[in-house]
Design a protein that fits this description.
The chain is of the alpha+beta class. The chain is 34% helix and 15% strand. It folds into 2 domains: 1-76, P-loop containing nucleotide triphosphate hydrolases (Rossmann fold), CATH 3.40.50.300; 84-199, Rossmann fold (3-Layer(aba) Sandwich), CATH 3.40.50.300. The N and C termini lie far apart (48 Å).
Length: 200
């Protein structure tokens, strides 16, 4: 909280906490009354309590000021708390997009599934049981990306066509698109369980 404001007017940035600096940045961004605000990693380097406070502040501002917010972040759990729609990018390309609830509950792209698998569980018992997950392999260069689908060198569902053709976004439903022709076929036709595609 930055009230009363008079206390903070003459302070230098190093005299403020991380959360206070973030609130000042948000206030500066809103000073001119924009309709759209782009937030690049707005909660990085903040503790969990402060992250939740910042997200609650943004949700309130979004509602009260009728703002459109675009979040750029790697912190997926917090997106579920605030985002209506979600686009997942891999190596500069959108690989899946749709309603946040659809993507969290029914992801299709193997990279999205890998990201969701990597979210740590807050329950210590379940976290120990699940272990720490990461997608195998290295992220390719965005300067010289691989041919075809950029994720194919790391993909557990890769087929020959994936190495040649860059897949377009295809509609799974009215509000859900995925840049993978393989996963819809596997998940819908063969009922492959999304949870096991990375099991080794």
């Amino acid at each position: 909280d930055l009230s009363p404001a008079a206390i903070y007017l003459d302070k230098y940035p190093h005299e403020l906490s991380g959360g206070q600096r973030q609130r000042v940045s948000i206030a500066r961004a809103l000073a001119l009354g924009p309709k759209l605000v782009i937030l690049d990693e707005p909660t990085s380097a903040l503790d969990v309590t402060t992250k939740v406070q910042i997200l609650d502040l943004l949700k309130r501002l979004q509602r009260d000021e009728n703002l459109t917010l675009i979040f750029i972040t790697h912190e997926l759990p917090f997106l579920k708390r605030i985002g209506d729609h979600l686009s997942v990018m891999y190596n500069g390309k959108v690989v899946e997009k749709g309603r946040s609830s659809d993507i969290f509950d029914n992801a299709y792209h193997p990279y999205t599934i890998g990201l969701l698998n990597s979210i740590l569980d807050i329950d210590p018992e379940r976290a120990r049981e699940k272990g720490i997950f990461s997608v195998e392999g290295e992220t390719p260069s965005s300067v010289t990306p691989p041919s075809g689908c950029r994720f194919h060198p790391r993909c557990p569902l890769v087929e020959d066509a994936c190495r040649v053709e860059e897949p377009p976004l295809i509609a799974i439903s009215e509000d859900h698109q995925v840049a993978c022709p393989v996963s819809p076929r596997k998940f819908q036709d063969t009922e492959l369980d999304r949870k096991v595609i990375y099991e080794r």
